[in-house]
Write a structure and sequence with these properties.
Length: 333
């Protein structure tokens, strides 16, 4: 391999995004001591709009589009995303080159009185920006009040400390990466709440013609997690769901060669839950994702998703920052 003087890693500027990008940077530096790696911080649409629910902004590429444009323009050589933020369709010319070993994909409850979801008082206020979390919480406890909550982890914890909320729900992977796992009052079981597609994993996106970078980042790839995330993403693509549609999924490789995939489609108020699972061989992850999605749609998921999309079309803000649409056509990935 010919020597490359510098490789630039694109990342959002949030604390969590930079922890993730710096992890990737350290791994790559250790394996490629002759190469200099730098991180370029890029602000995305989702970072700019902090005072509106994500579901009302639009759900395609909120935290990825500007990073992908920088990659296409060759301003950066690779970008590190939280896998749950990556749309199922990515621009032509780009490819997911690696998926990192997954952190625990569970959601966790952080409550002021250190109690579980089951033991929260009647009408307790829970903060979350996720429709997926909202729906599954209400399915479990319809008496709880869900408050829209955005911002970084510090901001969310402060609202809890100041008594504005009784609890918040966040991804355990984020707490682990911050070194704050002790903050969790409860690791919410999959029986109550399935995670977002890709939750806990990182996706490294590159230009599909950049074979040198593809080889360099191969050390970041974890084969089992790649299969799990691809199964979940295939299901999500078949359901035509975005990151702000209440769909949860969890795939798990059961060694040595089997894979279990479980998924849920929820109504926004949590009164209707369509949930099922499928098992098969690891190599059949794509087929399994399509089959389970088809099953969920036939069980009533199609009706739920159609109603949600119609409602979102009425409330979505139209390009509030006048951002330009992505120049590239998209492909499924």
């Amino acid at each position: 391999m010919e020597k490359r003087d510098k490789i630039v890693i694109g990342s959002r500027g949030s604390k969590l995004a930079l922890i993730q990008a710096n992890w990737a940077k350290s791994q790559l530096e250790e394996a490629n001591k002759e190469i200099e790696f730098d991180i370029e911080k890029i602000k995305t649409t989702g970072d700019k709009i902090t005072d509106s629910p994500l579901s009302k902004i639009g759900n395609i590429g909120l935290f990825t589009k500007e990073l992908e444009n920088a990659l296409l323009d060759k301003k950066v050589d690779l970008v590190v995303h939280s896998a749950k933020d990556v749309p199922t369709e990515i621009p032509n010319g780009l490819v997911i080159g690696a998926v990192s070993k997954r952190e625990d994909p569970h959601d966790v409850l952080i409550s002021r009185d250190n109690v579980s979801l089951r033991d929260l008082p009647q009408k307790a206020k829970i903060g979350t920006s996720s429709l997926r979390r909202r729906s599954q919480i209400l399915a479990f406890r319809s008496d709880l009040e869900i408050v829209d909550l955005r911002g970084n982890l510090d901001t969310r914890l402060k609202k809890l400390d100041f008594g504005e909320l009784d609890a918040i729900v966040v991804a355990r992977a984020g707490l682990l990466r911050f070194g704050l796992s002790e903050k969790a009052s409860e690791i919410i079981s999959y029986d109550i709440m399935l995670p977002a597609v890709g939750q806990g994993a990182l996706c490294v996106e590159i230009r599909d013609t950049d074979h040198k970078v593809k080889e360099i980042i191969s050390i970041l790839n974890h084969h089992e997690t790649m299969c799990e995330v691809k199964a979940e993403r295939t299901l999500l693509a078949k359901l035509q769901g975005g990151c702000q549609i209440p769909i949860g999924a969890h795939a798990e490789v059961i060694f040595p060669v089997n894979l279990k995939l479980e998924a849920v489609v929820c109504s926004l108020d949590g009164t209707t839950i369509i949930r099922d699972s499928i098992g098969g061989k690891v190599d059949d992850f794509a087929t399994m994702g399509q089959q389970l999605a088809h099953k969920l749609l036939g069980m009533g998921g199609a009706k739920i998703l159609d109603e949600i999309r119609k409602g979102m079309q009425k409330t979505t803000l139209v390009n509030p920052f006048n951002t330009q649409p992505s120049r590239a056509r998209t492909k499924k990935g």
